[in-house]
Amino acid sequence: MGRSGRRLTLTRPPHGQQAPNAGYDQAVPEPHNDVAQHCYRHPDRETLVRCSGCERPICTDCMHSTPVGIRCAECAGAPTGVRRVVQQSYRRGRVPVTVALIVVTTVMYVAQLVTNTAGAFGGIGGGVTRALQLLGSDVADGEWWRIVSVALTHANMIHLAMNMISLWVVGSIVEAGLGPVRYLGIYLAAIVWGSAGALIHTPNVPTVGASGGIFGLLAAIMVVQWLRGGRVGGDLIAVMAFNLAFTFGIDGISKGGHIGGIIGGAIAAFALVAPERSLPASRRGHVALTACAAVIVVGVGLCLWAATRSVPLQIGS
Prior knowledge:
The protein has helices at 73-76, 81-92, 96-114, 127-132, 136-140, 146-149, 157-178, 180-201, 211-229, 234-249, 255-273, 275-278, 281-307; strands at residues 7-11, 26-30, 37-38, 46-47, 64-66, 69-71.
């Protein structure tokens, strides 16, 4: 199908008649109602072209020429979803916020080591860790910074390495796809809601790690895929399912922190990306950032409420 919006069908000449190119099918235009529709991936763009495979309307950015006509990215086998954004992020090489977060977190872990006599694999301890870790009684006493600083501390070197590798992979995708401002908004919301989940589940247990933020970024990718493409890639679902199984299958992992991070990241991503579908460009940024700020404020409120509770909520076994 060409860009005129007219669909082509294959027909054969009547029996006994010879086609101009005997032995081949002919492409004959089929009548089509040329009414502009909207691209299934970019609802704000009108188009007269449909994918020759799935029949969905596609704009010029979504068109891929194939031997069987113009097709959408999925039908043409082009990189989409996570694969597409990963390739873009690594090709561009511009993810300064992700790099900065990894550097700062690593430096903070070095500070943890300096004050921890147990060494790199000795677990939680030391003055820096005690000053930044999340604990309900400390937050209730007014040390609110722990709601965020928890993401800068880690239990040991393995914990740090796993989280920083995950942050590099997942954070690069979100930063390349949404930009640094929205990326930071989602990451902060996920950390705050992760802290809320940890305080609701285990308010009296010290918690460290950036896992809540990373789980939130992973959830954000799924939300963005759904909002922009109408579907969530099976690879993402598999990764999320594996990590949740790992969370609930091993003792010592903050279940509440991970679940809270997923919820916070998903809500923040929806707040930041959903306006693309319904608001003019001049209003999207203000509305989206205001909504994301509200998500963060609600998360902080949950943290302060949970910090004063004495009975933890049981999640799983």
